[in-house]
Amino acid sequence: MMNIHGRKQNLLMFPWLGHGHISPFLELSKKLSNTNLFNIHLCSTPANLESIKKTLGNNSEIRLIDLHLPPLPELPPHLHTTNGLPLYLMPSLKQAFDMASPTFSRILNTLKPDLLIYDLIQPWAAAAAAAIGIPSVVFITTSTTMAATMFHLYLHSSTGVEFPFSSIYFRSYECVHISEILESSANNRKDKDRVMECVDRSSSIVLVKSFKEVEGKYGDYLSLLTGKKVVPVGPLVVDPFLDTKQNSTIQWLDTKATGSTVFVSFGSEYFLSSADIEEIAYGLEMSKVNFIWVLRFPKGERNIRVEEALPLGFLEKVRNRGLVVEGWAPQTKILGHKSVGGFVSHCGWSSVMEAMKFGVPIIAMPMHLDQPVNARLVTEVGVGVEVVREADGRLRREKVAAVVRRVVVSKLGEGVRKKAKKMSGDLRVKGEKEIDGVVEELLQLCGGGGGGGGGDGCGIGGISGGGVEKKKSGGFAIDGVVELLQLCGGSGGGGGDGSGGVVGGGGGSGSFAVESEV
């Protein structure tokens, strides 16, 4: 692709401090760097950059920039990351991150990049860039489905307008998540306001970690809600990396039959309750299926022994077919192993993308935040089956065992196994198709003023006047917006709540269908 500027463009990547955010920012950085059209700088705290340095090695052209957060008594530098951070310290981390705004402004003034790519939680970063004439683009690292869900709730939670896709809903025990989406706050500011301002300040596009074959209609709806062109960057799955300390895990897998083993992991930022640990343990035991289970505990609680967290005698009972690993395991390496036939997952978006890439069907066990929405999407696409909790939100071991067996060994699971393999094949065929479109969009923004972010309004209070323009070049198929506008009972004209009467399935709680458990 021709560089219209005659030189490499300088990009500054600035993710939130969570691993689920830093990882896709890093993978996007690698892909953009490989085009030889961009010089990439990635900014984060030393606590996060230390692990990044290990994966990049010495030959990477990506430059890492330290962001030093101001000291808080309860938050020493090694906790300037969400990885292993106790939940009660999350507000302090967000506060410290906000307090680092002047430091980040100095970094911007020193680097003077051609473009800033930033995350959904720090609108002050885009404001600082705009103050010195640097265009900026927000990169949404959660699913497009979740982003569309959030914006629908932000705009329509008080209007009763239904979400236009009945396959995405909240179960009765998940209604608390609707309140969390609308009311969660930190440092005296609602997350809702942060997210909306971040998208508002983004130049004419929004980048999403997705691909249109899975989330096309949700990308169309997000574009409708925000007035921005939604540009997918692809799944951005980390290349398999094997720490020499984890060779034993792969060697253990090598002894198991093809497709006979489930991988059990709930991400780096969620810690299971003792009740969940017990039901999952008994469920795995009852399933009679081989498993690798990664158990994590918050930093500061490392004195907890795995044996103490698990039911008495569990490790002895499953010793020939179960391996419990504390802390970390090479997830992509495990998911890509021929012996793995299922993934018991919380449905964090990076984990979903990895399962899709490697063709591993998902046993969905969502916990909080975006995970219930992602689990519904996994089910809709047909690459996973959800373990539905009891009406009070409790897991039941019998259901865990039944879904594990269905997905991995039962004839009833043949369909989901085939769809997972097909998805993997489709992704291989696509290759780097999305990145070409992303590069084209970013080159147009570099040196071009960014086009309208935060200036003429992005339609966050409703669709901007003049309707929705059909977009080309790398974005979702915006033709779908026409159908969405018809569903909404309007033509996309200016003003109002931008909705009309969206028809959805079921009723209740935050304009989403709420399914009661039987």
UniProtKB/TrEMBL annotation:
Gene3D superfamilies tied to this protein: Glycogen Phosphorylase B (3.40.50.2000)
GO molecular-function terms, A-Z: UDP-glycosyltransferase activity
Keywords of this entry: Glycosyltransferase, Transferase
EC number: 2.4.1.-
InterPro entries per the UniProt record, alphabetical: Glyco_transf_N, UDP_glucos_trans, UDP_glycos_trans_CS
PROSITE patterns tied to this protein: UDPGT
Region (Disordered) residue spans: 499-518
Top-level class of the enzyme under EC nomenclature: transferase
Gene Ontology biological-process annotations: glycoside biosynthetic process
SUPFAM superfamilies for the chain: UDP-Glycosyltransferase/glycogen phosphorylase
Start and end residues of each Glycosyltransferase N-terminal domain: 12-236
Pfam family, one: Glyco_transf_N
Biased composition (Gly residues): 499-510
Family statement drawn from the similarity comment of this UniProt entry: Belongs to the UDP-glycosyltransferase family.
PANTHER family reported in the protein's UniProt record: GLYCOSYLTRANSFERASE
Protein name: Glycosyltransferase
